[in-house]
Amino acid sequence: MAYETIIVEVEDHIALVKLNRPDAMNALNAQLMSELADAMKSAQTNDKVRCIVLTGNEKAFAAGADIKMMSEKSYTDVFTEDLFGAECAEVTNVRKPVIAAVSGYALGGGCELAMMCDFIICSDTAKFGQPEVNLGVMAGIGGTQRLTRAIGKAKAMDMNLTGRFMDAEEAERAGLVSRIVPAKKLMEEAMGAAGKIAEKGMVSLMAIKEAVNQSFEMPLDQGLLFERRMFHSLFATEDQKEGMSAFIDKRTPQFRDK
Ligand code: DAK
């Protein structure tokens, strides 16, 4: 599929997916979401890719769903189309690690898209928000659910009910982002993190991602059992033998994803 609203580059085992509608602050329209879903699916099946970095530009990761596209839609339209439902599922179904590198605005669907990734690294210029209330609607792809799990009820209510933006420092304090870096260093930091991840064994990476995500779905005792069983299962892999032998032999492990 040839892309017009995103740019994808695969290098050194990292797929860099860049949202590319700069004139519209990377607003998410149907074409962009469909291209993004396709890129994520391809990255999942491409053996050369071990980690994905999703980013925008310096001004905006994405300023939300495209308001111009949505303004004419009726209830019947959005309900029957299930606006962005399938595309979001492609993003969250990716089993390889996905990092969001956020600079500038991550608003509405943009903030929600960043939260669909495994973790967020942002620049000191980042601004997060769920301003849908200003449009007479509400968040629809995670802004009341993933955000609440990430930063707690008080801040999630505040963000959703007032529509205010949260800056990078507040986002880090609240646990929405894992790291803040100066804007110029954002991509270096995100690609560095992706590079570190890409060196690990894919079986461990996928198991870790699945176990952390299960923590949102299960009570603690079941989550701990799930984690333990996943841990046990990794002893069936060659990577476990290699990782532990390499430690004992004082050498760098050569993981083979087996
Ligand atoms: N949609 C369409 N165009 C947008 C846009 C957006 N969300 N955000 C910005 N733009 C466009 C502007 O219209 C403008 O285009 P022109 O007028 O030049 O043609 C251009 O980007 C530059 O924007 P500004 O001139 O406004 O730039 P400023 O620096 O002054 O302000 C801003 C930047 C990001 C603060 C401002 O543009 C802004 O407030 N944007 C809207 C933010 C917003 O309200 N986002 C939430 C949208 S609602 C669901 C799926 C998805 C969703 C819900 C449900 N389901 C599956 C159930 C998501 C909903 C949303 O995200």
UniProtKB/TrEMBL annotation:
Pfam families in alphabetical order: ECH_1
Record bears the keyword Ligase: no
Annotated source species: Thalassovita mediterranea
EC class name: lyase
Protein keywords: Fatty acid metabolism, Lipid metabolism, Lyase
Reaction(s) this enzyme catalyzes, per UniProt: a (3S)-3-hydroxyacyl-CoA = a (2E)-enoyl-CoA + H2O; a 4-saturated-(3S)-3-hydroxyacyl-CoA = a (3E)-enoyl-CoA + H2O
EC number from the UniProt entry: 4.2.1.17
InterPro entries xrefs: ClpP/crotonase-like_dom_sf, Enoyl-CoA_hyd/isom_CS, Enoyl-CoA_hydra/iso, Enoyl-CoA_hydra_C
Lyase keyword on record: yes
Similarity comment text for this entry: Belongs to the enoyl-CoA hydratase/isomerase family.
UniProt cross-references to Gene3D superfamilies, sorted A to Z: 2-enoyl-CoA Hydratase, Chain A, domain 1, Lyase 2-enoyl-coa Hydratase, Chain A, domain 2
Molecular-function GO term, any one: 3-hydroxyacyl-CoA dehydratase activity
Protein name, per record: enoyl-CoA hydratase
Functional note: Could possibly oxidize fatty acids using specific components.
Example GO BP: fatty acid beta-oxidation
